[in-house]
Design goal:
Structural Genomics Hypothetical 15.5 Kd Protein In mrcA-pckA Intergenic Region, Chain A; 5-stranded antiparallel beta sheet; alpha+beta; 209 residues; Ribosomal Protein S4 Delta 41, Chain A, domain 1; 39% helix
Amino acid sequence: MARYTGPVCKLCRREGEKLFLKGSRCVAIKCSFERKSYAPGQHGVSQRIKLSEYGIQLREKQKVRRIYGILEKQFRNYFAKADQLKGVTGENLLRLLESRLDNTIYRLGFAQSRKQARQLVRHRHFMVNGRLVDIPSYLLRPGDIISVKDKSKKLSVLHDSMRKVRDEDMYPWLKLEKAQIQGTFVDWPNRIDIPIQVQENLIVELYSK
C-alpha cells in the first residue's frame, strides 16, 4: 500500500499548525514546528499568500489527509462512501476515518502516533474479534474488540505508550481494558467528540464542485 515517506514535520509547517504526526516528539522541545513555524521552502519565512476560496478548501482537505495518513485516491474513496451514507457527509467522512484500525489503536493508546500504529498492524500484532488483521485501513464496526496477540503483549513500544494513557482521557466511543490490553469500538463517534480542529464542510464543498 502506497504511503507518504517524506519529512513529516514539513507537513505541519505547511498547514501552519501541529498535526501531532510524530507522537511524543511533537510535545517535546525538539519539535521542528516550535523552531520553524513558518512554511517550508526557500521563501517560507517571507511568503505571504492570500488564499482563494479554493485554496482554503484545499488546505482543509490536505490537513485531514495528513492527520490520518491517507493518500488522495483513498481519501476520495472515503468521501464517496460518506456521501452515500445517511446524515451529514462531512461528519460521516470523519466517522469513517476514525473507525480505521490504525487510528483506533492510536486513540486507545497502544501507539504514540498513527504511523507507529500502522506499522504495528502491518507487523501482525493486533487482532479484531479474535482474528488477526494486518490491514491498517480495516474499518471497525460498533462492538468490535481490538486485542493484542499473545506473543506481542510484551512489546516495549506498546507498554511505553500505554503508560501515558489515563482512563479519564479515553474517548467516549472507545472502551479500554488495560489489564487485558484490549479495547472496544463501542459506537460511531459524534462529531463534537472527535478532537481535530477542521471544517469538514469545506471538504464537502471542494469535492462537490
